[in-house]
C-alpha cells in the first residue's frame, strides 16, 4: 500500500515544532524515527496526518547527567543508547533493552521518545522506564510539565501526552552503586516483540518489577514487588501471575504468557543469587 | 559424444565446479530488472478491491465515489471482466474425481475467501488507485462460512459450492497388500496424529505483472514474474480468446518463487483482461498484505497414521489417512489435489516394506486456495513417515539410525518399485546414512547428549530419511490435459567473436539456473563460462519449455543445454576441419580454441572461425554446412520421475521451562545425481532447509472461525531468520540418472522435504522420558510446554 499523508513539515526547533502542531487542526503528528509511524502509514492504518518532523532538532538528542539524575533526550536513538557510556553506567537496563529491540536498521533510526510515545505494551522501553521510576518531560503550547512513568501509559498506544504536546526528555535517578538492573524476555525470534518480558530493578528503596507484553500497558507488578521485598520468590511468582492480564494472540495464549513471566522471575532471582523456594 | 565426468582434469571441466554466477554481480549491484522496475508510456496501475468476508453474496457495487478520485480512470466488476475473459476449472483428467467450480478472474456474484478480488480500480498511480479502491462500495450479504477441515464433509456443514453437491474436492485411496491383516498380527503398532500448518511462500519480490495489449499488432505482451512463461502464455491466450502465438510472456529477473509463482492468479489474469479492454499497459504489483491473503497457501494437513513393525524392527506396514483443506477453489491449472496425492505417493518412501494403505481427502473451505509450494507434499509425507519410524524405534528400544538401516532399500536393489507404485531408478539410502553418521559423529553426539542430560539440559538428535520427486515427465500434468510442457529445449549459438548465446526454456528465479546453464554450455562447446550469455524467460525467443518447477531445471533444461552445446561443437568442428584440412574427430575445442585433440596444440581461435563463417563465407567450400546455431530438446522417457534421496539430522536444545527450541546444528546428505555446481547445490539445500525449519518452528497462517486471516504481516507470520538458523553441514552421494548424459536430478526441494521431520524427531528425542511428544507443527514454545503439561489455563 502507498501511504496517504496530509502533509509534511520539518521543524527547525522545538517552538517551531509546537507551532506546526498547533496549526495542524488536530491532524498534527510528530515524526521522530518513523519506525512505527511510517509502518502504520504504509498500511494505511493512519492516513491524512500532517507530519511534523522533529528529527533534526539537535537539542532533543543525547544523554547527560544532571545532578543526581540521568537525562535522555527524546530523540536519542536506540543504537546510541546501546553504546552510550553514561547509559551503561547509570541505567544499564536501557542498554540491555536495546539488544532485544528489533534489528540494527530499526535501532539506527528509532528513538526512545518515539518508542515511549508509541506506547506499545510489548515494547521494551516503556516497561524499562516504569521499572526505573523515570519521569517524562513534556513541552506543549501551555509550557512544560512532567509526568511520572507510572502515570504516563494510559492504554494500548495511548499515553498522557496531550494534543499538541511533544515528549522532550526522560529523566531518572542514577543507578546506585550496588543496584541490580536486569531485563529478561522470551521472544520467538531474536528482535521480535517479546511474548512476555520482565524489567527488574533492585535498589535501596526496594524492588521494582515491570512486565512487558502482559496487558494493555506495561505493568508495574506491585504485588510481586512486595513479595520480592520480603525475599519470597514463590509468593512473588504467584502474585505476578495473578497481576497479569496478558493477551492471547496467534503467537501464544495468555496462559503461556503468565507462565513465562513466572519462569523469567525465577531466573532473574536465581541469577542475582536469591534463595529459591 | 560423451564426457568423462569422472576425470576432474579433463579439458573444459566446468560441470561439477563452482563457477561464478553470471547474474550475481548485477543483482547485488541493484541492477536487476524486475517487473516493478518497468514503466511504459501510457501505463496505468490496477488495485483490487478484495472481499473482507470469507463468504458473501455480492449484491451490488457502487463505484461513483471511486471514479471521482483524481487519477482514477475505470472501475471494473467481475461481470465487466467476464465479458472478455472466460472462467477456468482447475481439474486434471488423471486425478480422477477431482472437481472444482468455474472460477472468474474477478468474483461475479459471490466471494469465497477473504482477499478474493471483487472489483478492480485502474488509475494513473498506485496511490490513486488505492484511494479509489477504498471508496468502492460493495454491498455484501454474508453467507455461512466453512472453515474447519475435519468437519467439512459433515452433514450439517454448509456446502460451499452448491453445484458441486458437497465439499469434497478429491479423494484417492491406494492400497497395496492387506494392511488390516498385517496390523492385526504385528508385534507392535504405533499410531499418531500429525498436523502441518498452513504456509505461504513469502517471496521477496511480490507477485508482479505488467500487460500491454497492442491492438495494431494484435499481440498481448505480459512482463510477468513467473516460473512458467509458456504455461501462462497458453492460459492467457485461452481465456482472453487469443491465439497462443499472439501472446508473448516475458519473464525478467524474479525475486524468488518457491512454487508461489507457478500458478494462475485471478488478479493477474484480470490485469491482462483490463489491458485488453483499455488498450493501455496495466501494472499490478501485490503488496505484502495481498501476498499473505492471495498468494497460494499450502501444507494445511491433518494425518492419522500407523506403522506396524516386527520384533526386529522390520517395518511391515504403513496406514495413512491424510486430510487437507484447499480453500475455495482448486488452483489453475496444476490443481490443488497434487499435494494430497503426493502424500499418498511418498509416505514410507525410503523403506522396503510390503503392505501400504494411504488415503487423501481433499476438501473445500472458505479460505485462500492452496497449491504447490516448494517440496509439494514431501515435508508432510516425510514428517509422518519419519515420525512413525522414530516412535516405533522408541517402542522397541532401538536406535533411530539402526531402525532405518534395518529397513531402507538396499543400495544395490535398483530398479525397484515401491508399495506406493513409485519406480526408483537408483538411490543411495545406505551410503547417504553412512556419510551422515560420519559427518555428524553420531556416536559422539549421543554421548554429548547424555552428558548434557545429566546436567538437566535437554538436547535431542533427530534423523529423517527422505525421497524427493524431481525431473517430472508428462505423467505429472500433461497426461491430465494441462498444457504444461515436461520437455524443455535449449538453443546455443556461436557469434562472430566466438562467444556463445544460450536460449533456454527453463527460467531463472534467483536460484542460479543461468549459472548452471552457462557452465554446461561452456563445457559442452569448450569455452570459458564467461563467454556464454544465457537468455531465459521469453516465449517468443527461447525454445518452448516448462520453466521452473518440480526440481527440473538442471535435470531437464541442463540436459537440453548439454545436447545443444555438443551439437554446436560438432558443427563448429565440421567447419574447422574443412578450414584446417583435418578430420573433425582429430580436433577438439578447448578454452575457446580449436586444438588438436591429441596434443592440445592450438589450431584456430573461435573468433577466427567466426570471422570466416560470418564475413568470408565465400572462402569456404560451397555446400559446407555452417550452422553455428543448434537446438536440442530433452524429455525423460524411462521413468515418470527421477527420484532423489537423502537424509537429514537436527541437533537442538529444548528449554523445558519456556518451550523455546534452540537449533544447534543441522546436517543433510543428499543424492541429486550429477552435481553441476557444488556451491549452487549446497545453497539450494541450505535455503531449502531454512524453509523447512520455518515450517517446523515458526510458520503458520491463522484464521478465525469467520475465515478472517489473522496474521497477514511479516510481524505476525514468522519466517525463519538468520539469527535462529543453525550451521548446516551438507554432504553428497552422487548416483547419476541414466536417462541423460548429464545425469543430473533435482536438488531444489530436498532441504525443505526433510528438515521439519528431523526437527520434530529431535524435539521428541529431547523430550523422551518426560512423557511429552509433539506432532503438530509448528512446534511453538506453547505447544511444547503444553505437551509437557506445564501450562495452567
Ligand atoms: C520491524 C520492526 C520491529 C520492531 N521491533 C521492536 C521491538 O522488538 N521492541 C520495541 O520496543 N520496538 C520495536 N519496534 C519499534 C521501534 O522501536 C520504533 O522505533 C519505536 O517504537 C518508535 O520510535 P520512532 O522514533 O521510530 O517513532 P515514530 O515512528 O517516528 O513515531 C511513533 C509514534 O510516536 C509519536 N512520537 C514520536 N516521537 C515523539 C515525541 N518526541 N513526542 C511525541 N510524540 C512522539 C509519533 O507521532 C508516532 O505516533 C520495531 C519496529 C519495527 C519496524
Provide a count of the helices of chain A: 12
Could you say which overall geometry of chain B the principal axes of the C-alpha atoms support? globular
Radius of gyration of chain A: 19 Å
What is the CATH-assigned architecture of the largest domain in chain B?
A: 2-Layer Sandwich
Query: Structural class of the helix and strand makeup of chain A?
Result: alpha+beta
Radius of gyration of chain B: 27 Å
Q: What is the share of helical residues of chain B?
A: 25-40%
Instruction: Compute the average pLDDT of chain B.
Output: 97
Oligomeric nature of the chains: heterodimer
H/E series of chain A, N to C? Answer: EHEHEEEHHHHHHEEHEEEEEEEHHH
Largest sheet features of chain A = 5 strands, antiparallel
By CATH reckoning, the class of the largest domain in chain B would read: Alpha Beta
Number of domains of chain A: 3
Task: Give the structural class of chain B.
Answer: alpha+beta
Main sheet specs of chain B: 7 strands, mixed
Using the coordinates shown, work out and report the CATH topology of the largest domain in chain B.
Aldehyde Oxidoreductase, domain 4
Keywords (chain B): Molybdenum, Oxidoreductase
Protein name (chain B): Xanthine dehydrogenase, molybdenum binding subunit apoprotein
Organism (chain B): Puniceibacterium sediminis
Pfam family, one (chain B): Ald_Xan_dh_C
Quick recap of the structure?
The complex is a heterodimer of chains A (277) and B (793). Helix content of chain A is 35%, strand content 25%.
